[in-house]
Description:
The chain has 281 residues and is α/β, with parallel strands linked by helices. The protein is built from nine helices and nine strands. The chain has helices at 38-43, 59-66, 93-104, 138-154, 172-191, 206-209, 232-239, 250-255, 268-280; strands at 26-28, 35-37, 72-75, 110-117, 120-127, 158-164, 196-204, 218-221, 261-262. The chain has a seven-stranded mixed β-sheet with strand order 3-4-5-6-7-8-9, sandwiched between helices. Strand 4 and strand 5 (120-127) form a beta hairpin.
Amino acid sequence: MAWFKREKKGISTSTEEKKEAPDGLWNKCPNCKKALHTADLLENKYVCQYCDYHLRVGSKEYFQVLFDDNQFTELFANLTSGDPLQFTDTKPYVDRLIESQAKTGLKDAIRAGHGKMNGEDLVIACMDFNFIGGSMGSVVGEKIARSIDYSIKHKIPFLMISKSGGARMMEAAFSLMQMAKTSAKLALLSQAKIPYVSLLTDPTTGGVTASYAMLGDINVAEPNALIGFAGPRVIKETIKKDLPKGFQTAEFVLEHGFLDFIVDRRVMKAKLASFLKIVKN
């Protein structure tokens, strides 16, 4: 006889009595598809513990990883984009901005803060891909410019974390102007002999790559990040040739001399702090 015998048939539990797992408790790795517990993911700096895949995260998570005890002062928090062209595609640009602000809790595709990393002052500006694809509009350029001014005024190193699909088409030339503006500000930062670290994450493309993302005193990237100007599909269709294996990955870009090194997010804070300490001394 079996050790277990069902005495009742059709046992059921009412909906009210069912215990559901809270939302957001589990994630799935986009690479290996394994389930990841949120607590483990947080402890592992949002890197898959099975395959080392670096999950895409935003400014909130990068600030948690880099700032000591997640303590920082947010800078220029109230800047918001206008609609200089009264642009409309599938919906008015103003409506798209309002929806993105409600969805992400951000004013635009970038957040800046001043805090300490391993006890040393640092200004970080970090892009958010969830806000209209991390596109570079006038607010992104203005926040970067003001963050650089802040770094120069207080003589504090500047870290730029790029994660973007490129220029924001809804602002046309106003967006493209940010490439020149931020590059000019970085030249002033260099003249002031204040370190600038550029961290390229997945993805960093378009006008962002063609301007401030590649102008660091050191250019650093996360493993397997997509880095390029035009996307690989566009390039393939243009040149009518198959692209090399690993084309536009961080490893490919490093091999061709456009990066200084690739750093795992779990040791990023220590690596960047070591570099800034060397430069300072």
